[in-house]
């Protein structure tokens, strides 16, 4: 039997994903060693391998078949646009993709003005403004602390993830428009889905029972 390989997005989601897997009897003791610099972890008994990767790289590993299965946020799936099957909403990592800014800047959206939009998600932002809102904007890619952009005058609004809303509130910003709901998803390589259909379907069934 070949190994089934899992790519987990590092950070917030990996911990929850491992907890969920553990409930279905899928464990990887090696992964719990926080000091380890090892990159790939094997469960010989289950013939499974696990690795952690930067979120945006997870769909890449899965599209190329370097991982059969990936766990990643829906935001990353939408942003990366890779050829993968999304098979399960895992129900954790819930948040929303939103256009945010100062309340007085809502007028820029209502009047469809050519404004600057800072975001870590340029493809999602482009799709929303151009395809859904029919508004021409300049998109500025940032890599973190997106809420800074309207405060220091880099952009009029931002497109970012909102969970509790406290980052926005503490910085005098708010949600101007919701784009979509997000949560962690299980994705599968299309070829693996065919070649390992029984194993993957059984796994999806077991995980679904725990949701
Ligand atoms: N409050 C939140 N902020 C950001 N992401 C969240 C939040 N709540 C849930 N998520 C989900 O968790 C995923 C991973 O978030 P995390 O912050 O761990 O990674 P990241 O922001 O890509 O990492 P880093 O900032 O370290 O590069 C996101 O892609 C999103 O789907
Ligand atoms: O609504 P809240 O609960 O405040 O969460 C939302 C914040 O969390 C995320 O940032 P993250 O912590 O990933 O850091 P980053 O800004 O460096 O991406 C996101 O980009 C928002 O800034």
TrEMBL record:
InterPro entries: ATP_PRibTrfase_cat (IPR013820), ATP_PRibTrfase_CS (IPR018198), ATP_PRibTrfase_HisG (IPR001348), ATP_PRibTrfase_HisG_short (IPR024893)
Domain ATP phosphoribosyltransferase catalytic: 56-208
Pathway: Amino-acid biosynthesis; L-histidine biosynthesis; L-histidine from 5-phospho-alpha-D-ribose 1-diphosphate: step 1/9
GO terms for MF: ATP phosphoribosyltransferase activity
CDD domains: PBP2_HisGs
EC number(s) from the headed UniProt entry: 2.4.2.17
Superkingdom classification of source: Bacteria
Primary location class: cytoplasm
Pfam families, A to Z: HisG
Subcellular location: Cytoplasm
Keywords: Amino-acid biosynthesis, ATP-binding, Cytoplasm, Glycosyltransferase, Histidine biosynthesis, Nucleotide-binding, Transferase
Catalytic activity of the protein: 1-(5-phospho-beta-D-ribosyl)-ATP + diphosphate = 5-phospho-alpha-D-ribose 1-diphosphate + ATP
Gene3D superfamilies named in the record: Periplasmic binding protein-like II
Family statement: Belongs to the ATP phosphoribosyltransferase family. Short subfamily.
HAMAP family listed in its UniProt record: HisG_Short
Domain writeup: Lacks the C-terminal regulatory region which is replaced by HisZ.
Complex formation: Heteromultimer composed of HisG and HisZ subunits.
Role summary: Catalyzes the condensation of ATP and 5-phosphoribose 1-diphosphate to form N'-(5'-phosphoribosyl)-ATP (PR-ATP). Has a crucial role in the pathway because the rate of histidine biosynthesis seems to be controlled primarily by regulation of HisG enzymatic activity.
Protein name listed in UniProt: ATP phosphoribosyltransferase
Species this protein is from: Aequitasia blattaphilus
